[in-house]
């Protein structure tokens, strides 16, 4: 914002400058008032059309099927939310005009700002003091809810984002505390059992298999915990993730509830690991000990069952439905239009790439019977044939040497990047104005294919100099490409044409707290080039130490994505506010997916028309504009 300085004395020169600045001030206010009125007129017209549709459909209530009634209820709920947002829009803008005019009168030592409020703002179109829309549709809504007006209103109300975070979560905070306590107890128990002398746990020999089998579920638990922290941060900062992700604002998990799920998985993971180590030691002997490797596999199955077993009647049900639809849309990537939540989730899958590789490795080991399901020694019979015929744990490296196994691994390696690549191509096809932008983004994800191909070439060439050179070039290009895209496109930073690093609008920090953004930039640079450290360490995935380093770099990638999520949603939130790209309106007319691209094109043309309207010169003479309004009155 530009600071205006002028002579505030009562000299003739000072008075002239005051009049000039005051005139420019009211011209700017009038321009903003025109924008607010235009936006409000469009939205109030849309509200009237929606209300007419709802009323017309309520007249045919007796002829409706259950599906039609459900759709009508959703439309009324969203209409109520729409009206409440419109009221908030009125209140915020009226308060903004009031405060800025009050500030003008204080600086100028005049009452012209107060006069402007009475003549223009108080009688403005957007400042309608009685929005009767919310009353007129309560009657059909009450009818749909069996005539109980109190119950009907309770279902219509939407809790604010901050209320979901701070209020009515005491029971979940208690559960979260219990889960964190359980996690700490079993973490100490695991540390104890590993350090007990003569426990019989050959950790160095067994470590590769232990990490391989337990790592994917651990990474998923850490990801969920990080995501719950993202949700909490977004809500506290005012980033409307509910609108951006197009979630149901009345039926969704809070940040605390999501943290309970994450720490619940973490506690379960530690319990299973403790049982695994206990059965692998000489401290206890059970008849089930030969099947100890079923324990981590059972943990994988529990995770899958939790994700895909319907939990109807619980608060988890709506999240499950949303997750299933999202997974289905990722499977159909490239064949359907892409929403923000689709490519955001695909980006999360790219950071969970190690999980895909570990699950592939586990499936391959089970299919090829290379994983010893009975590796625990039978201390009563050292000649156990099952033990003699089983594969040594220390020998387990990359599963499978056949061509099919390598293709299978290659597929899992590039799957997240392919989903994102296909989405970029689809967005380029659907969007004419930003086609080049989406093709560039697709090129960015295609570098992942080259990185995987060069990794295979480096491995099978015995680290030949030529293959090593191509591997270095591919990784450097991919890292620079993705880094610049993170900072410039995803976060909206690095405005070199304006010679500034940060945006004009910041949510997480202003002034002295801007260091948060610079720290995030440094973090992204370091973590994007973490592969250099991985190379110089010389990770050998078949060794225990190599698996530890691989796990560490996988967690580093999750931390990078955790930070990335904050600034990506911030940038999307600001773009939504500036371009109205996300709305929550349910039409009673079914719209086919094939029509979405055409609708977006129409919306783009409408946005260009509005921008052209806003570029028109404002009224130059404030007094003449005030007199015109008074004559019309």
TrEMBL record:
Keyword 4Fe-4S: no
Origin superkingdom: Eukaryota
Ranges in a coiled coil: 589-616
Subcellular location: Membrane
Residues annotated as domain SPX: 1-118
Keywords: Coiled coil, Membrane, Transmembrane, Transmembrane helix
Topology relative to the membrane: Multi-pass membrane protein
Family matches, as InterPro entries: EXS_C (IPR004342), SPX_dom (IPR004331)
Biological process terms in GO annotation: cellular response to phosphate starvation; phosphate ion transport
Annotated ranges, domain EXS: 400-600
GO cellular component, one term: plasma membrane
TM annotation in the entry: 172-196, 217-235, 255-279, 291-311, 464-485, 515-537
A single MF term (Gene Ontology): inositol hexakisphosphate binding
Pfam family, one: SPX
Chief place of localization: membrane
Family of this protein: Belongs to the SYG1 (TC 2.A.94) family.
Protein name, per record: EXS domain-containing protein
Organism whose genome encodes this protein: Oikopleura dioica
């Amino acid at each position: 914002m530009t600071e205006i300085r002028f002579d505030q004395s009562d000299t003739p020169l000072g008075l002239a400058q005051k009049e000039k600045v005051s005139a420019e001030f009211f011209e700017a206010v009038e321009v903003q008032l025109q924008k607010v009125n235009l936006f409000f007129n469009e939205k109030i017209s849309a509200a009237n059309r929606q209300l007419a549709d709802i009323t017309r459909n309520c007249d045919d209530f007796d002829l409706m099927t259950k599906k039609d009634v459900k759709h009508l209820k959703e439309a009324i709920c969203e209409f109520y939310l729409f009206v409440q947002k419109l009221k908030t829009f009125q209140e915020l803008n009226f308060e903004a005009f009031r405060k800025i005019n009050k500030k003008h009168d204080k600086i100028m030592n005049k009452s012209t700002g107060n006069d402007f409020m009475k003549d223009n703002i108080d009688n403005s179109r957007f400042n309608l003091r009685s929005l009767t829309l919310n009353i007129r549709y309560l009657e059909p809504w009450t009818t749909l809810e069996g005539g109980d007006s109190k119950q009907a209103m309770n279902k219509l109300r939407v809790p604010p984002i901050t209320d979901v975070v701070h209020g009515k979560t005491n029971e979940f905070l208690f559960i979260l505390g219990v889960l964190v306590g359980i996690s700490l107890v079993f973490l100490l128990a695991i540390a104890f059992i590993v350090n007990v002398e003569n426990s019989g746990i050959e950790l160095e020999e067994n470590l590769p298999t232990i990490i391989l089998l337990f790592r994917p579920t651990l990474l998923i638990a850490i990801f969920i915990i990080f995501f719950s922290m993202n949700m909490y941060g977004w809500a506290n900062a005012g980033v409307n993730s509910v609108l951006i992700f197009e979630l149901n604002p009345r039926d969704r998990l809070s940040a605390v509830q999501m943290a309970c799920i994450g720490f619940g998985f973490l506690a379960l993971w530690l319990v299973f690991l403790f049982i695994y180590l206990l059965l692998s030691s000489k401290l206890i002997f059970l008849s089930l000990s030969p099947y100890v490797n079923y324990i981590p596999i059972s943990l994988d199955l529990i995770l899958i069952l939790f994700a895909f077993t319907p939990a109807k009647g619980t608060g988890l049900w709506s999240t499950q439905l949303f997750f299933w639809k999202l997974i289905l849309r990722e499977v159909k990537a490239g064949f359907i239009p892409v929403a923000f939540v689709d490519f955001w989730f695909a980006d999360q899958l790219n950071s969970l790439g190690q999980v895909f590789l570990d699950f592939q490795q586990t499936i391959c080991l089970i299919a090829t019977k290379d994983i010893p399901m009975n590796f625990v020694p039978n201390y009563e019979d050292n000649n156990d044939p099952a033990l003699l015929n089983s594969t040594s744990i220390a020998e387990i490296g990359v599963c499978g040497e056949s061509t099919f196994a390598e293709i299978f691994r290659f597929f899992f390696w590039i799957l997240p990047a392919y989903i994102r690549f296909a989405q970029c191509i689809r967005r380029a096809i659907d969007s004419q104005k930003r086609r080049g932008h989406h093709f560039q983004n697709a090129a960015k994800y295609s570098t992942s294919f080259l990185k995987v191909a060069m990794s295979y070439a480096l491995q099978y060439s015995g680290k030949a100099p030529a293959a090593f050179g191509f591997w270095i070039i591919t990784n450097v290009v991919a890292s620079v490409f993705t880094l610049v895209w993170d900072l410039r496109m995803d976060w909206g930073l690095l405005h070199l044409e304006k010679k500034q690093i940060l945006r004009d609008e910041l949510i997480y920090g202003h002034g002295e707290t801007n260091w948060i953004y610079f720290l995030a930039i440094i973090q992204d640079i370091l973590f994007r080039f973490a592969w250099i450290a991985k190379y110089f360490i010389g990770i050998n995935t078949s060794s225990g130490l190599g698996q530890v380093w691989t796990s560490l770099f996988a967690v580093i990638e999750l931390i990078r994505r955790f930070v990335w999520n904050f600034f990506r949603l911030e940038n999307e939130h600001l773009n939504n506010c500036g371009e109205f790209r996300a709305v929550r309106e349910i039409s009673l007319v079914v719209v086919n997916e094939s029509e979405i691209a055409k609708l977006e094109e129409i919306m783009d043309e409408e946005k260009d028309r509005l921008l052209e309207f806003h570029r028109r010169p404002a009224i130059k003479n404030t007094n003449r504009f005030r007199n015109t309004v008074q004559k019309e009155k």
